Every structure is written in C-alpha cells, then in structure tokens.
C-alpha cells in the first residue's frame, strides 16, 4: 500500500511540471510494474514461509526464514537495480520524444536505487503480517508516504530538481521507512517474542529461490503484460501516456484493498497450512472474495460519477483529460476482475501451489489479454480505452480459471 501511495504522490506533485514530465513518469511506471512484480513475487514466498512457521509455532524456523529473506532481498534488489540502469537505452524505442527521455533518465536512476530498501522492507512487512502484527507494517509504511510529501516539495520545487528530485525523495523516504522497521523489530515490546535470531543458512535461501522463481515468473508475466498495455500507449503519443498515468494512479489506489487482501489471504492460508487446519481453507477464501467484491462495488459508482473531476484534478491539459475520462470506465471493470484473480492467487500461494497457477496467468495474459488489447485498441480502432478493454477480458478469464482451481483443490476440505 505504501509503495502505491508513494507513486501516486509522485504523480500528483509532478503533474504541474507539464505533460512531458507526466508522460515520463507514466513510461517509468509501466516499466516499474515489471520490476516490482518480479521482486514481489520472489519475496512473497518468504512471507508465506514465515506464516507457516508461525502457524506451526516454530520460532527458530521463523528467525531462519527472516535472515535468509533479508539476504535474498539484498541480492535480488541489487541485481535488479543494476539491470534497470543498463536497460534504460531501450526506452528510446518506446518514445521518440527527446523531452520525455531527458526528463526520465535521472528519475529512473533514483528509483532503481529505491528497489533495495523496497525489497528489504517487503521482508519485514511479511514478518509483521505473518505474526499477526499487520498494522505495524501499515503505520511504518504510511510514515514513509507522509515523509515523501515534504521531501518531494523540497527537492522538486525548492531545489528545482524536477523529476530527479521526485526520485531522490522517494528513495530517501523508502530508506527511512526501512530504518524505522528495523528499529521497531529490535525494540518494540509487542514483537519481542519473535525477535529470536538464527545463523544464516544457504539452504533456506535456496528453498526460497526454488519456490519463489515460479511465483516471480508468474508475477513478471502478469506485471509485464499490464506494463505492455502502458507501453502500447506510447504508440499513441505523449498525451496518451499522460492520460494512462492519470488513470493508473487512481486504479493503483483502488487496487490497494485487493492487493492487501491477496497478502492477507496468503498469510492466513499459510498459517492454516502450518497448523494443519484444513477446515479453515474455504472460509478464508470466501471471506476474502467477499471483501474484494464489496470493495469493487463500493468504488465503481463514484469512479464513474466523478471521472471528469478526477481527471481534471490530476492534469490541466484538456487533451489528457478528454482521453482519460473514458479510460476510467474500463479501469473500473479491471478492478473487479483483478480482485477475483488476486484472491485466488493468494490462496493458492498460501498452500505453496505456485507452478500451475503462475503458468495459467502467464499463458492467459500473453495468449489472450495482450492480443485482445492490441486487437481492440489498434485493429478495431478504439484507441487507449480499447487497449484497456481487451486487457480486462483477459484478466477476467485468468480469474475464473484460478478460482475454479482453488475450489477443485479444496474439495475435501
């Protein structure tokens, strides 16, 4: 949630710099979805392992998984950060605007560095969720978002660093968030029972890699497919990129509840697996589905009713506003489909069922969602809204298949 809000804060505070700056951050966001999806998928298995250890009341295993998770997060994030900087020249193939590329490079380097504290904080967030202290992670994350606002103002406008200032502010805020999480883990009385340390063991890291790679590949497949729709927007020009960033920012806020429920259902399912409480599987799944469907219904009406006002609040460019308004309608449907899919993935992940579900998502996204996005947007000529509409059909297809898989696996529960 905090990472999503930080991206929204950047969008809101960068918008006054103009359409080129907004297009640059839109292009970066599309690519960052791929990066963060892969990291999140890889490290999500650490959170599940922590939950299973907590469910089994095995404090030594909990400590061992935390230690190995920190090592894995450091290694993976440093590798990703270096790859991001080296891959930057590839953006020149996605936009022909020198102004967009010039604005993007310093921001891209700063957010590449941010992947390190992002990944490490993700491990601590998994720990807090696993030991039933989720609000600790929430408040620590929100503290980072709150800090990002004045840092953005100082570095973007007072220091006149523009997009570079936004990237540096996000890196600083996320780093301070990590420091707070470490301090809280070492000193907070409520977490004392879970503060046991364990000697580092490569076997745990290798286990996480073995289980995490399929999840990471699945998350990459899903994230890169969504990112590809954003990159398709670049073919329509800077205005379409900026409009997509406006819509994505609001969609990201709405998706925070389904995303949080995904993590929660994976943790709860992991605890039930660790405690061998098979009878809890379906009630956990049903409750999570109910929450995301209620949330989708709650946000659908106001999103459609106030889409003109929302677009106008994020951009003063009339062309951007005109393009963004119809895109909000398809984004609302994507929220519904993505919520169902996320709950199914989280529940299956909590049962350490990773390979088949991730193969399903990769296959459906690349064989159904993206071809439909291109066909509806370009072949049928419906433009950016058509790209999102075609993609939404693919997401719903994946969601229904994964929901059916969970019910089949838990038939005896």
Radius of gyration: 21 Å
DSSP strand tally: 0
Q: Note the total helix count.
A: 14
**Helix proportion range:** over 70%
Content of β-strand: under 5%
Give the overall shape, derived from the CA principal axes.
Answer: globular
Question: Would you tell me the overall average pLDDT?
Answer: 86
Give the structural class.
mainly alpha
Spell out the helices and strands N to C: HHHHHHHHHHHHHH
Query: Which spans have pLDDT < 50 for at least 5 consecutive residues?
Result: none
Q: What oligomerization state is this entry in?
A: single chain
The number of domains is 1
Largest beta-sheet details: none
Distance between the termini: 32 Å
Plain-language structure description:
The chain is mostly helical and 413 residues long. It has one domain. Helix content is 85%, strand content 0%. The protein contains 14 helices and no strands. It has helices spanning 2-14, 19-55, 59-87, 98-130, 134-158, 163-187, 202-234, 238-254, 256-274, 281-305, 307-314, 318-350, 355-379, 383-409. Helix 2 (19-55) packs antiparallel against helix 3, helix 2 runs antiparallel to helix 7 (202-234) and helix 9 (256-274) runs antiparallel to helix 10. The chain is globular and about 60 Å long.
